[in-house]
Amino acid sequence: MDIKKICSSLRSASQKLALQNACEKNTALEAVASALDKNRASIIAANKQDIDAARAGGMSESIIDRLLLDDKRINGIIESLRLVIGQTDPVGEEIAGWKTPNGMSIRQVRVPLGVVAIIYENRPNVTVDAFSLAYKSGNAILLRGSSSSYKSNVEIVRVIREALAGVKGGVPEAIELVEVREHDHSDVDQILNAVGLIDVCLPRGGKKLIQNVVQNARVPVIETGSGVCHLYVDEFADLEMACRIAENAKIQRPSVCNAIECMVVHSKVAAEFLPKVAAKFAGRVKLHADERAYEIITAAVKEGVVSNGTTTDGPSTGSGTELLRATDADFGNEYLDYECCIKVVDSIQEAIKYINEHNTKHSESIISESRANTRLFQSMIDAACVYVNASTRFTDGGEFGFGAELGISTQKLHARGPMGIKVLTTTKYLIDGEGQIR
Fold it and tell me: Measured between alpha carbons, how far is 330 from 367 in angstroms, rounded to an integer?
């Protein structure tokens, strides 16, 4: 990969985009939305090749779900793109303005970052999301997807570039896709060391990918995080609500970063709640329980409250509860699958301490009818998103009203939480004078 040549082209494209107004960019993005709709058959066909190769390689079905594109998901991609089109263009927005005592006028305005790189795994919808947010905010983007989604990404980028080329003022060179070779990550090293060529890099994927980017990048990085998310069931929880939320947060789509990986349960409600949730999860989720949770669920199985099939040494072959004794490795683990650990605590303070020690600063939720406890939880939990009586699955750019998203930032500088269009801008000061000197 000739990183200098690629970034030079992207830089030129970003300079063209910086001069365009919202109407021109929206017209181009609308052409892309139409092209994605018209070319959905070829996109799905390319995606099928990726899916078939992933299954042949033994990839888990929960991860394959992240890779899959079908008509419904393409509809969602197009809808997200049109939400971006409908958003206010952030470029040129005046953040602040004032006059100095000597008469100079100072304005702080939003401007594009310039050339953005994103390194991501599996999900080909990210290709469109990242492109649309970059283009609308006046940035050119370098995409480095994974080998597992390469054919899908190639076809999507082809459709995008052809659509942009067919629009007056379109800038097709504003998007570039890195050619990916399996087991070859030399291109990633080039991106991470492209000082002066790339303005910012965003990693989006698993813990290993993110750590590699954060630890080895010489270019600026906006860090996204893996999702070790917790659901805390407080002593004052509505337990029926807690079960519904637990089911949604764990089962609806377990392979995503905003799915819960651990339920933390107050000891005062554990005897009532754990059999309920174990029954709801029976045959669907493998539970890794600490000693107290294990004893409660085992007793419930013996009493017939929870269906049979409990095991202590491996997956159940029946349709009942799959229960294992948790090990230290389970707490703080991101399963990304139909597995969840359980921790019993004796106070909300213990729950907060445990979560802060084991989470990835992504999304946490408390189920409680106590206003004092919910406010304490929201104040003390260190995470980008902290919920009260709601599923962590809402941590998403679309759900937050951003349309598409670049990922979920778990750091504290520049951006935190779902990253929408404004994350790809910075500011500069514009100063107008009338001959003032100092």
Answer: 22
